[in-house]
Q: What sequence folds into this?
């Protein structure tokens, strides 16, 4: 999709806005998993999630009277953050009943917020309708400039950590895992990349097994960053070509990983952000004694859910 030089240029662009996020080997997590665990801390970006990298590359050089998109939160925060710095108005459509805290963050970053639909995929269709009605540019959740931007965290991880045997990556609409696959391949590494989804929102896992797009009727999970029903065909193709497998999780497994991050590292992880660690714990016997990376893709967990999962 891109060259290594283009990926390095994207990394320099991101660096103008915030420093590289750390990758740490946490001893307590390693003891818990029975292997050497390296965490990529994308919860340490200005929006608390990896998506901001893609927002910055998407808006770089963009000429537009306004951008609109749909999100459950992190993609919208990314566009709002980058759009404000590019001087381009941003409108975000979220599903009804979306996270109040993520909604507040998007508004604080300057986005106009519209609530419509029962889930992300309905909100996305409405955002595309509004784009046509208002003459706005629709920003998808998966597109080459976004993949290029988020791939910069994988470049940092692969160059900052020792060689990894495996890397677990959560899948929402696919930009994160595709960025990891692209960075690995451009660097000529042999790291096994494993996707992670919720059992209640397993459209990519089902599609990966079938070899073609499989849509689901619902996407029910507290890990809202993975709650998609309709896979992106381009993302699925790249995942089929470059990922080893996709692991699916229960919300209880995700909850346990959120707790583990808090107790072992004192880092907040949202549901999708903890999913990679949860998948490693599910496969810990196969990974015993190896060096494994997990992407803590975001820390934007609502306080009521954090209380329920961690404090009660």
A:
């Amino acid at each position: 999709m891109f060259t290594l030089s283009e990926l390095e240029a994207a990394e320099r662009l991101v660096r103008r806005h915030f420093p590289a996020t750390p990758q740490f080997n946490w001893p307590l997590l390693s003891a818990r998993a029975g292997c050497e665990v390296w965490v990529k801390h994308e919860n340490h970006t200005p929006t608390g999630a990896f998506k901001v990298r893609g927002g910055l590359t998407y808006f770089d050089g963009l000429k537009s009277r306004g951008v609109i998109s749909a999100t459950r939160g992190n993609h919208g925060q990314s566009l709002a953050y980058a759009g404000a710095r590019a001087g381009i108005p941003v409108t975000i459509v979220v599903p009804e009943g979306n996270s109040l805290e993520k909604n507040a963050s998007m508004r604080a970053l300057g986005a106009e917020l519209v609530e419509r639909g029962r889930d992300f995929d309905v909100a996305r269709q409405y955002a595309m309708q509004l784009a046509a009605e208002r003459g706005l540019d629709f920003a998808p959740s998966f597109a080459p400039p976004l993949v290029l931007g988020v791939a910069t965290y994988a470049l940092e991880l692969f160059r900052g950590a020792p060689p990894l045997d495996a890397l677990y990556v959560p899948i929402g609409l696919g930009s994160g895992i595709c960025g990891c696959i692209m960075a690995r391949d451009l660097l000529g590494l042999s790291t096994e990349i494993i996707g992670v989804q919720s059992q209640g929102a397993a459209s990519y896992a089902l599609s990966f097994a079938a070899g073609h797009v499989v849509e689901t009727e619902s996407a029910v999970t507290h890990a809202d960053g993975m709650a998609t029903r309709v896979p992106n065909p381009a993302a699925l193709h790249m995942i089929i070509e470059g990922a080893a497998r996709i692991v699916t999780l229960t919300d209880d497994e995700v909850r346990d990983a959120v707790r583990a991050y808090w107790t072992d590292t004192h880092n907040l992880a949202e549901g999708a952000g903890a999913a990679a660690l949860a998948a490693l714990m599910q496969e810990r016997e196969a990974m015993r004694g190896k060096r494994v990376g997990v992407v803590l893709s975001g820390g934007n967990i609502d306080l009521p859910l954090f209380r329920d999962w961690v404090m009660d």
About this structure: The longest strand covers residues 192-198. The radius of gyration is 18 Å. The chain has a mean pLDDT of 95.
